Amino acid sequence: MTHPAFYPIGTPGQAWGPAEVAAWRAQLVRQRSYADDVLTVFERLRARFEVLPYGEVLYGSDVYPLFALQSLEWQAGLPGVLVTGGVHGYETSGVHGALDFLDQHAEVYAGRVNLLVAPCVSPWGYERIHRWNFDAIDPNRSFKEPSAAQESAALMRLVAPLLGQFAVHIDLHETTDTDASEFSPAKAARDGVPYTPVHIPDGFYLVDDTENPQPEFQQAIIAAVERVTHIAPSDAQGGLIGSPQFDRGVIRYPLKSLGLCASITGARYTTTTEVYPDSPRATPEQCNAAQAAAVCAAIDFVLAQR
After folding, report:
1. Structural domains of the chain, with CATH
2. Which has the closest alpha carbon to 251: 280, 300, 224, 218?
3. H/E stretch holding 42
4. Which of 73, 95, 121, 165 has minimal Cβ neighbours within 10 Å of its Cβ?
5. How far, in Å, CA of 135 to CA of 179, rounded?
C-alpha cells in the first residue's frame, strides 16, 4: 500500500484552523442513510427492547436523533452490560454487529443481565463513512469532561445515572485499510505533525485497559471470535498496529486518559474490539458475526464469574 507523505488540505507543520476544517468537510458526501440502515431496525426491535432516545446531534441543518436499546425490565442485582458501536461512524460492523446481537442473540440473556446497547453513536460519521465528526473531532478521544464532541457527551449523559451498575462494557470497532491511507494522514495534517505510516493487522484483535488489565476476559473473547474469523498475527516487532502485544490478539491502551469510549462506565471488564473488514479472508457477514460473537463471549464470561 502507498502511504502519502502529506494530506491535500492544510500546510505541512501547521495545525488546521476553521478554514481547513471547512475545506475538509466540503469534500465529504453522504453515502448511506442512518434512518434507513439503523432507525428502521430499531423499529423492528421495539417489541423486544425499550428504545431510549438520549439526545440528538445537531450540525447545521442536519439533525440526528440518538437512540439506545435497553432490556424491557432493568432488574436490580443483575450485572449491567453496555454495548456501543459506531463511535467511529465508518466502522460498519460495529453498528451492524451490535444490531445483529440484539436481533439474534440477546434473547438468551433476558432476565440474566441488564442490557444497554447504543449501536450507532456517531450517525453523521456513519452516513459519510468517516472516523471524525462534523468538526473534525475524533469522538473516541472525547469521552472526558468537558467533551468536545456532541456524540461523546450525549452517550456519557445516558450512562451517568447507571454508573456503578455495569459489569462489562464492550465497544465495537474496526481497523481498516483507510486508517493508513486516509485517517492517519488526515490526523497528522490536522494536528500539524509529521505523518508516520502504520501497519494494519490482518485480522481481529482487542484493546484491553492498561490501568485495569483483564487477560482472561480478553482471551475468552479471542477464543469465541476465532470460531468466526481469524485473529490478527503479530507484526515483525511482535506487536500489533505499533503497540506491544500482551497476549495473543490483545494490546493495551490507557482508556481513561485517552478519552476512549470503553472507559466511561468504570466496569471491571472492558474491551474494544477491532475487526478487519478489508481482509480477503473475511466477508461483511463474518465481520458482523465476529462482533456479535465478541459480545456474547463477554457476557458469558461475566455470568460464569457469578
Report:
1. 18-304 (3.40.630.10)
2. 218
3. helix 40-45
4. 73
5. 18
Place of cell 483507510: 178
Q: Structure pTM?
A: 0.97
The 114-118 sheet, strands edge to edge:
50-59, 62-70, 114-118, 80-85, 166-174, 269-275, 205-209, 250-253
What is the rounded CA–CA span in Å between residue 174 and residue 277? 7
- What is the residue-wise DSSP string for 58-127? EETTEEEEEEEEE-SS--TTSPEEEEEE-SSTT-HHHHHHHHHHHHHTGGGGTTTSEEEEES-S-HHHHH
Residue 103 burial (C-beta neighbours within 10 Å; 0-12, 13-18, 19+):
middle
Residue type, 15: A
- CA angle 1-122-67, nearest 5°? 145
54: left (phi over 0), alpha (psi -120 to 50) or beta: alpha
Express each pLDDT in 212-270 by its tens digit: 999 999 999 999 999 999 999 999 999 999 999 999 999 999 999 999 999 999 999 99
Q: Which helix (H) or strand (E) holds 270?
A: strand 269-275
- Which residues on adjacent β-strands are paired with residue 273? 172, 206
Element (H, E) at 153: helix 150-159
